[in-house]
Amino acid sequence: MNLKQTKARANKMEERALAMRAELWPDVPEEHFWDRKKAGGFTTMPRTMAYLMNIIDTLTKGQPAGMTYLTIWCRLFTPGIVALASEKQMAFEAGFTGERAVDTWRKRMRHLKKHGFIDYKPSTDHDFHWVLVLNPHHVVSRLGNKVQERYRAAWRERAIEIGAKDLGTFPETAKKEPAKEEAPKVDAKKVAHKKSKLQPDPKKSSAGPRATGQE
Questions:
Q1: Residue 88 to residue 85: CA distance in whole angstroms
Q2: Could you read off the pLDDT of 97-136 as tens digits, one per residue?
Q3: Which has fewest Cβ within 10 Å: 50, 58, 100, 215?
Q4: Which domains, and CATH codes, for the chain?
Q5: Which of 52, 43, 15 lies closest to 162 in space, CA to CA?
Q6: Spatial separation of the C-alpha atoms in residues 122 and 195, rounded to whole Å
Q7: What letters, b where the CB count within 10 A reaches 16 and e where it falls short, cover 26-41?
């Protein structure tokens, strides 16, 4: 399906949904709905997010980090990188309160990094200020059998349903350094042979000039 066909399909789906809304809830005015085209403050995330959060929670048993992952995406604007707020605020957004809220949030962040969903670098504010957000579909694919089969199957089924285009081949986690060119191997015997030709014969050089005069 090309771009034009995709847009046409989306328009038909929107028209159908609006028609059903008007039919089922005719008394609710337009102003009562949140519309991203009119309101600011929205983000873009995979429609598989609910499945991704469930997968993360199964990977971090006893310390579910799915909600922590969602709060990162809610702040994402530039693809791949986001600057987080204070640790206290991020902990609260993830649902952690009390004296150990920040410490609990830090553990969840470490879990997300351990399983490859994110990486982070420090700033003057805190150790998790800059966060690198990797493609979650690639991450789940790399995790393979570490993800429970039924969760992996449900995630893939939903991804195919929404037309996700990043389920096939994916790039390596880091760029490989270009291979250094090896210096050509030198044949020691050939070098020694050439040197021997260039050097004068010591026997000939020590012998004096031949006498040619007569007594």
A1: 8
A2: 999 999 999 999 999 999 999 999 999 989 999 999 999 9
A3: 215
A4: 64-163 (1.10.10.10)
A5: 52
A6: 60
A7: eeeeeeeeeeeeeeee
